[in-house]
Amino acid sequence: MRSRSGAALLLVAWCARAAAGGDQLALDGELDLRWLHSSAEPSFLNGGVGTLRFDPGHEDVRLGRAFLAPRLRISDTVTLHAVVDAYGDHDRNPVDLSELWAEWRPFPTGAVRFRTRVGAFHMPISMENRGPGWSDVYTITPSALNTWLGEEFRTIGAEFEARWLGASRGYLGDFAFVAAAYGWNDPAGALVADRGFALTDRPSTLFGGLGRPPITFYHEIDRRPGYYAGLTWRHHDRLELRALRYDNRADPGAETEAGGGAWLTRFNSVGARLEPDRRCTLIAQYLDGETIIGPNSAGAGQFRMAYRAAFALASVEWSSDRLTVRYDDFHTHQLSGFYGSPADEAGHAWTLGWSHDLAEPWQLAAEWIRVSSHFAPRADYGVPILLVESQLQLALRYRLHVTL
Amino acid sequence: MAAPGLAGELSVTVVDRSGRGVGNVVVTAVPVEHGPAPARRAPSAAVMDQRNRAFVPQVLVVAVGSSVEFPNNDSVSHQVYSFSPAKRFQLPLYKGAHHDPVTFDAEGLVVLGCNIHDEMAGYIYVTAAPAFGTTDGDGTLRLQELAAGDYRVTIWSPLVADPPASLERVVHVAAQDPAISRIQLARGLRARPEPRPRRGDWEY
User: Fold this and answer.
1) Using a CB-CB distance cutoff of 8 angstroms, which residues of chain A are in contact with residue B96?
2) What superfamily does domain B45-126 belong to in CATH?
3) Are the Cβ atoms of A403 and B116 closer than 8 angstroms?
4) Is the predicted ipTM greater than 0.85, yes or no?
5) Which of A62-66, B15-19, B51-55 has the lowest mean pLDDT?
6) Given CB 3.0 to 4.6 Å as the disulfide criterion, which of A53, A92, A168, A298 pairs with A302?
7) d(CA A228, CA A381)
């Protein structure tokens, strides 16, 4: 009852503000339909071991993604954001939340601006996923690195950012420090250890799962909060550098009654995006870390795996078109805890993307991707250790942006 | 018609290292000689628009006491603020011409920001100089109806990286011939590309 009257009050306050002018509700969204041609192994999303989203059993016309991303202004400095997704696959929730957060951004009273976010959201690492709903603005499929971040990571907690605004001191750029504390990220690491890296535009949703049987991600197992902390430097709107340290501080010996374990996952990540003029974009990103499961008392029986992933991307846009080429490189290396084949992977991928803005609100996008990966545990499933897979996609997108 | 005794003209041209004119540079001219303070220019009403996530113009120069309107003709809302000592203010979230004009009653540089779009920066240069303006696309500003005498000419732009001391000149303005001052910058301009079109207000 109390929550209902609270909601009614909120609605009244919002209507009053809306009547006073200004866009209180903004709605971004997209309906993305695909035509596909694949020469890949059955995808891990369909119970196979392939590293791409689609496979020869899932070709022709498919739903790429449908999402709605409303942003509601509660007051001048507080906004509420949500991203609601549907991917048209076998996820247990056909429609699910991917992000939901409240943001407080008080007016700056000096050269440092503060921002606090509370809820569930993507951490600020990816240099590619800068569109509404964490969409990739350069290619259909994000890099292996950012695919993984979208699959296994969500900040469910609070994040604080302090940003020094250079304009007030005659410097055309800014410098930011960001830090977050979060929970419910204890399974992070399980997927990359089990499968290796992949290249899909299928991030996890908050309550759903990926693969068959579905792996779910957002559980608190050991009651130990994790953290990340990072720095961002933006120079003249042309160069952006980001560095971030992530550590979920999981107790690798903790287990749920159902047998799910906590994965201690930590990594360092750096990224750079250079936009030398209005047309060109160059991006490079690198991530290096480890994941551990099993009690520390297990000694050499404790599973430990190191991993690193990197990519470089070049993109050029002119009139209504954008052309992008990207090279991905990714590796995992198991250090201890051997039971079967070592979780060692070496892979690389080439991605060629093109997009063309038709009359608003339509967009056409095409992508060819070829990934070559060598992952030892595939032998346990009777699949060749070395897979060379490719996928051609054509997307027709209806993009929504309205303000009320 | 020029007022009698105010027939002097001063033409200031700002060029970069390779001799190309630099537009949108603030130029002020203040008489050097002591004596009765010259008349300030009367306050006026000016407009600082917002379009495509940018302040338009990026640099506005006004006389002390002037009022400035901040219409938002962009497709998204803005929250304009300044914490500069010359004028602290904030305009809560709006679109269109929602707020009353803001009066700038102290001399100095007012740096404008938007609390939603950190990349937006605008500048209001509030001056007590009797003559001022901004250079055109060719880098030139003509100040007319000046009394004859020596003037201290000062230029300013957020893109100019030269030390401020090198951006001042004393120029003699005669009653008859136009005085010409050409200021060549020693350092390259700071780069500030146009903001790229973006969808929505998403930041990741």
Assistant:
1) 21
2) Cupredoxins -  blue copper proteins (2.60.40.420)
3) no
4) no
5) B51-55
6) A298
7) 36
